[in-house]
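Replying to the earlier thread about multi-chain prediction with a worked example.

Input:
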Amino acid sequence: MPTVLFVSHTGVEYPVDAHVGDTVMTAALDNAVPGIEAECGGGCSCGTCHVYLDAAWVDRAGDITEMEEGMLDFVVAREPTSRLCCQITLNDSLDGLVVRIPKSQF
Amino acid sequence: METDPWALHPCRPGADPWSLPLAQFDLSNPRLYAEGVWHPFFARLRQQEPVHYCAESPFGPYWSVTRFRDIQEVESQHALFSSEPTVLLGNPPRDFYLQPGFIAMDPPRHTLTRAAAQPAVGVANLGLLEPLIRERAVAILDALPLGVEFDWVERVAVELTTQMLATLFDFPLEQRHLLTHWSDVATSSPRQPGPLRITPEEWRQSMRECLEVFTGLWNERAARPPRQPLDLVSLLAQHPATCAMTPMEYLGNLLLLIVGGNDTTRHSLTGGVLALHENPEQLAKLHAEPGLVASLVPEIIRWQTPLAYMRRTATADCELAGRRIRAGEKVLLWYLSGNRDASEIPDADLFIVDRARPRHHLSFGFGIHRCMGNRLAEMQLRIVWEEILRRFRRIEVCGPPQRVMSCFVHGFERLPVRVHGL
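Result:
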């Protein structure tokens, strides 16, 4: 059971026990982590589950598809480690994943 | 003499929605929307038969999905509930030569085409467009006469959305009325009542004209270096996934973008005026705290729901809310109803400008087909309402609204108003 640590833009930490095979977005929604809106429910179509990965996790989180790349044009304040967390599926190698939540999804 | 069969349909304005047998419910009757009486029909279905089968309609049998959660469930299973061949209730005529836009495609074609057009409505491009939209909104609002009746649809809603659409296509501004016309034609047909009553030949003629004009723009842009802000024609003409589209595929995608960018915001711009006229206490909140425009905008979009439904087609036998749906059957996702589902949205039948979760609505759809232009739509509405609140104490609706005769486009032909200065 991988754990994911969500960190708000003000530094509040939300540790979450997640399940292998779930997306990071699902883990956030199931645990009512504030700041992950996920308006399209994981369809990679709204850009409101934007997070910043800690640099150490970028490679393990998998590649960015062309579709996700397109949606990242929609997010406010994109950074080099920006991802849409509906597109990151949890596996054991992501146990301990740290993601930061942006100040706003809109 | 009355010749419209819908006028005599059992499921029509004047019928009692609470005693009419459920078997006679046919929500495709456009008169329910033209007269604005759809609401209790859906309330009954949500309560008594939330996934409803209409065995007979002019478009053949179809299912209606009316609850928020069930609509989300269908939309998240995009392989089981396909968007092909169309997202409209009526199937395309057999001799239909038009290819569907990406709204009526499944992955992977959907993904590729949508991705090509997407940068036009991305954050960076919207930032470039915002000053232009504001300038045009200000010009339109400043030209309105105080205390004199005029039609809000024609003078403000159509004008503003059409100018915006022309900008998105980098279409000659002085010919922008053509875009409105093609949008109206595209959502009308002799089989499926819409804004216009036209013959099949007139329909074809108009679509050919649209393609001809846009082919000229395509040829001019295909080799032109990109300019800022990005325009949709250049994006499609230059993206590797779309640059080899056939003319009919191009036309299909253009119509999608024209209708999507025109009809929808036009009707939300008008619906918001009517909603605030009918709810003066909500307008008072806005004047007291103009920052509430941020939640006003999504509330208007929920309240109006400018596209009443989207259709899917089941690709396999399946079950939804206890009902057995068979492969090949049509399934209508009634956003109009899901947005009034009180089990999901508190006080769903009230228009409230300061809701806690105003973006929790289905007007943009859900899942992979979620409206691509949603940020643009919200920006347009935000700018217009910011500028309205700076100028007008209220916008008085001074006559009955005239609504679109369509079960798909949920909006207004005409809204007589008078504006009153601060």
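Helices of chain A lie at 24-30, 66-72.

Feel free to reuse this layout for your own posts.
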